[in-house]
């Protein structure tokens, strides 16, 4: 499953609708997501049109390994990106959930458009 998060409202909807609420309720994960969304909103506006305006968005993808990899590939293909051409990658390992890995990867599509792919992957799947 996935959710496109472009503003605070979408982030709150994700927190309420994600099938992995314990991950999104983790303070470190949620603070990071919020900071990334706020950064885009401050620079490009919270009500920007994702198809027409500059800025970009965060896409959160969660599930088993094969499901997550499939969705990531779709996002990368849509934006003509390559899996190993991200600007940075951070991983968060939850101490109480060693079966889940949360990874943040920032991809630059152009000088003023970025896609951050956040994966919440069940390692045992």
TrEMBL record:
Domain of life according to the entry: Bacteria
The protein's name in its UniProt record: Uncharacterized protein
Upper lineage: Bacteria, Bacillati, Bacillota, Clostridia, Eubacteriales
């Amino acid at each position: 499953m996935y959710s496109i998060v472009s503003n605070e409202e979408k982030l709150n909807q994700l927190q309420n609708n994600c099938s992995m609420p314990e991950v999104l309720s983790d303070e470190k994960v949620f603070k990071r997501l919020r900071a990334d969304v706020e950064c885009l909103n401050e620079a490009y506006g919270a009500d920007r049109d994702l198809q027409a305006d500059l800025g970009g968005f965060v896409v959160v993808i969660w599930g088993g390994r094969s499901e997550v990899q499939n969705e990531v590939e779709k996002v990368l293909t849509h934006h003509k990106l390559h899996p190993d051409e991200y600007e940075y990658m951070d991983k968060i390992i939850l101490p109480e959930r060693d079966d889940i890995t949360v990874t943040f990867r920032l991809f630059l599509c152009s000088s003023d458009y970025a896609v951050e792919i956040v994966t919440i992957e069940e390692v045992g799947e």
